[in-house]
Q: What sequence folds into this?
């Protein structure tokens, strides 16, 4: 009874939405933050993504695994438009990704944070300025507000004392944590992590993953490409195994790692050990 | 026969050197602005900009500056427009400088790692914000040495404007030689004056580079 009641309210909300705006009709009424439908990407004649369908719900942690060349990083980079795709749809927070529309891309990218393998901090700006840059430019926050926010974020990643430091004075792990703070400063709806520990010395991996795990616990929506399988097992809500440009297998970590269904995934997991 | 002192020679050369400085400034400021505009058109991926700018650069880098000066001077006359040596020299040197500077600066911009562009893009920065706050400052530091190197070339290049009758340092040197019959002395002074213009430029670029290499 309770359940049907909930469904009823949801339908009502949906109805309200559809009547409110015409565009809402095109938007499926789900709690998906990222919605990918039939996405195909080609480099010339080489198709690297062969029809991807994937939904990431709010607060969900989705880990994407697969061999190199399986298209997992490319898929991630499609979500904020760093890569263009030829077919299919992609929505973030109900907003469609439209290549070539500068304003639409700018809107969408404010909802998507990205952290890179090589940190990509701006070397000519101090740590604090790295974090403050986008909020003050794009969201027109005043200096005091964005500075206060940057301090809070740096504290959250354990680098409160590094506000005035330069990126090249920091270790790799510290730089990556600054990059996380920088991405969070835009208050994104989803955070993309592209092999964020692959360029780190082994002893620095832990400090970065701990921050990411903290974010997951706080309900941040995450899409991660990673080779850290123990981390995936612990933190992921869903693991996506990609193979040859397709999503080959999806499931909760226990199922993906414990009972892989396809020979490709079995082989991938065996090769890890 | 009138006797000319060294001071007479130097004084007249110094007066002419003003026009060398003025022409150099026109070439560098005009060329810099035009070169920057061409670079931005290319970076903003305006349709056709890459091909057009590349052809422009090839044209001006692939022909002698002397010919460009002749063409600017006599070309206008052919069109029925009488231009002064000032306008022709200023225009030719501006176009010439813009072609070199836009290419030099493009190299500097391209030297910025792709990750910097991607980071700026994923932070939702607009093209202008990206150039102004991320790519520009980093490219600027790389650009100083080659830009000043070219500025020195441009200052010396103004000597060619003498062939279209523009009285700058070199032309004045020739005129003074005709009056004094002391070519070695006169041209030695001319060379020294060019050096006096170019050397501080190089020295300034070195100090600027040191300064921009962030102190810490």
A:
């Amino acid at each position: 009874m309770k359940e049907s009641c909930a469904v009823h309210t949801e339908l009502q909300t949906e109805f309200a939405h559809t009547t409110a705006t015409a565009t809402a009709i095109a938007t499926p009424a789900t709690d998906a933050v990222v919605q990918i439908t039939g996405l195909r990407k080609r480099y010339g004649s080489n198709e690297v993504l062969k029809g991807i369908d994937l939904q990431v719900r709010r607060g969900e942690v989705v880990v994407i695994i697969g061999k190199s060349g399986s298209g997992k990083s490319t898929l991630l980079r499609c979500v904020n438009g760093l890569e263009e795709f030829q077919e299919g749809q992609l929505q973030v927070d109900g907003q469609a990704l439209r290549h070539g529309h500068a304003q639409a891309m700018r809107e969408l990218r404010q909802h998507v944070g990205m952290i890179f393998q090589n940190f990509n901090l701006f070397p000519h700006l101090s740590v604090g300025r790295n974090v403050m840059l986008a909020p003050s430019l794009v969201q027109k926050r005043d200096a005091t507000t964005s500075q206060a926010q940057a301090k809070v974020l740096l504290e959250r990643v354990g680098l409160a004392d590094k506000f005035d430091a330069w990126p090249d004075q920091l270790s790799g792990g510290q730089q990556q944590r600054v990059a996380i703070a920088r991405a969070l400063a835009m208050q994104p709806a989803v955070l993309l992590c592209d092999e964020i520990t692959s360029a780190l010395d082994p002893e620095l991996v832990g400090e970065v993953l701990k921050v990411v795990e903290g974010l997951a616990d706080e309900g941040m929506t995450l899409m991660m490409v990673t080779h850290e399988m123990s981390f995936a097992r612990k933190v992921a809500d869903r693991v996506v195994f990609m193979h040859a440009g397709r999503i080959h297998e999806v499931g909760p970590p226990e199922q993906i790692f414990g009972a892989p269904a396809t020979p490709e995934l079995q082989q991938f997991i065996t090769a890890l050990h | 026969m009138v006797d000319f002192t060294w001071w007479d020679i130097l004084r007249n050369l110094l007066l002419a050197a003003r026009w060398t400085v003025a022409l150099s400034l026109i070439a560098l400021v005009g060329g810099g602005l035009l070169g920057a505009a061409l670079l931005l058109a290319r970076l903003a991926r305006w349709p056709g900009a890459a091909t057009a700018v590349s052809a422009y650069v090839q044209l001006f880098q692939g022909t002698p500056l002397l010919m460009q000066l002749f063409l600017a001077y006599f070309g206008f006359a052919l069109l029925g427009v009488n231009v002064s040596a000032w306008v022709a020299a200023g225009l030719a040197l501006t176009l010439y400088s813009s072609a070199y500077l836009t290419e030099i600066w493009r190299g500097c911009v391209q030297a910025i790692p792709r990750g910097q562009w991607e980071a700026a893009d994923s932070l939702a920065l607009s093209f202008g914000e990206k150039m102004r706050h991320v790519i520009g400052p980093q490219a600027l530091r790389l650009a100083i040495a080659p830009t000043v190197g070219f500025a020195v070339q441009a200052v010396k290049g103004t000597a060619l404007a003498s062939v279209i009758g523009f009285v700058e340092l070199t032309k004045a040197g020739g005129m003074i030689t005709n009056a004094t019959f002391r070519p070695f002395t006169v041209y030695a002074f001319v060379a020294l004056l060019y050096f006096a213009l170019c050397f501080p430029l190089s020295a300034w670029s070195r100090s600027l580079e040191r300064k921009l290499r962030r102190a810490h």
Remarks:
- The mean pLDDT of chain B is 92.
- Residues 59 and 99 of chain B are 9 Å apart (CA to CA).
- Chain B touches chain A through 20 residues (CB under 8 Å).
- Chain B has one domain: 6-215.
